[in-house]
Amino acid sequence: MVSNLEGPPLIEILNPAEIARARETGALVAGILQAMKGRATVGTNLLDINRWTGEMIIAAGASSCYIDYEPSFGRGPFGHYICTAVNDAVLHGKPSDYALADGDLLTLDLAVAKGGVAADSAISFVVGDSRPLESLTMINATERALQAGIAAAGPGARIGDISHAIGSVLSEAGYPINTQFGGHGIGSTMHQDPHVPNTGRPGRGYTLRPGLLLALEPWVMADTAELVTDPDGWTLRSATGCRTAHSEHTIAITEDGAEILTLPTQQ
What torsion, rounded to 10 degrees, do the Cα atoms 29, 33, 35, 37 define? Predict the structure, then answer.
């Protein structure tokens, strides 16, 4: 899930003990996402994915960042454990009574808190045996943009360096870029400053420091940068009905660069 940040600026710098707890939270988020990806087969209902996610969060002694989340851009509390966005849906996908079909492009976005520290990650993939080239190409572009953003992150770098790296990959791949929603700081709460747009100018913005956590999340729509909101008040879709993709990792800025906290144990 991504957000326009609200309220006064909040940028947290975590100490080594908090970073250690962030690693544990990140591993939990990555593990749940991979488990749900494995269960997201043809015929799987999105509400079941939500239920299974909730069971895993509770069993781990963690808490959902989404259940009570109620920002100004959503209608009421989100009320679910995971975002499930299908095909033309890209952000804040509210789980509904929908059974996945072969060839669906599904994005799962999950944020969890444990030990006082949150982690946030998203993956996009195609369900079933179909392999539509447009969908796979778009997913690959967001994953490459994410890796470029991570590579640009490190102590002394600026937010604009990350944004420029992400935007360069997406632009070169031919995708329009929406800057209304993007990456963000994360720590004791899910959404914090600084905002990390998916395009920008290098050398601009907040200077990164060791101990800063960022959730970087390139997302694209095949042929538009315009979003529309579902009647559910949450799910954001492409205005043209085109397919979409979204990739996200939580990273920690270290003395040596950036550490990915939400990397699956098996790639």
Answer: 180
